[in-house]
TrEMBL record:
Keywords: Methyltransferase, Transferase, Ubiquinone
Record-linked CDD domains: AdoMet_MTases (cd02440)
Pfam families: Methyltransf_11 (PF08241)
Sample GO molecular function, one term: S-adenosylmethionine-dependent methyltransferase activity
GO biological process, any: methylation
Organism: Thermococcus camini
Residue ranges annotated for the Methyltransferase type domain, each copy included: 41-134
Protein name per the record: UbiE ubiquinone/menaquinone biosynthesis methyltransferase
Amino acid sequence: MGFREKYARLGERYNALEKPLDRFFCPLRKKAASFARGRVLEIGVGVGKMLPYYPKDIELHAVDAVPEMVEIARRRADELGLNARFYVMDAERLEFPGKSFDTVVSSFVFCTVSNPEKAMREIHRVLKPGRRAIFLEHTRSDCRLLNWLFLKPLDVLLGLLLDDNTLRETHLLARNYFKIEHEESHYRGIIRLLVGRKV
């Protein structure tokens, strides 16, 4: 069973599963969303955890590979009164023309995508020159001990449950495609916020 089937099965229960982490993640989601401007694409929108934090004046387009998640996010956007459109789409195969967006947002997505390099190329392709990509991601910690004692066991558990990989180095991959203008490391690098500009 792949990640699509696993997330589809979770549906609304995903909110309950992640609720204990909200007090850590939601302030970071709010900060990440504050960088969004203009025509915005969010990849891997999931159940819409980022939606309450976006500026009200953006034009939001959001994609996810799991139809059940897209429907939950769409309902949440309606409740929030957001100007948003939703699509069932893979991050590695974005069905948008090149140079379409002012901002691309990825929030806890690269731990799940099957081909991170291809997804990063797609983000770069659809972003307008001079505009920003925002990454809020699980990453390998700067502390080896933390990786072995905490992240490795968590990686095994989440791999079985959701096909997630919490030990990826998305922060290093992003540097290959974007000029990083802002970077924050939280919880010894377990979570990182990066803002990169397409040059």
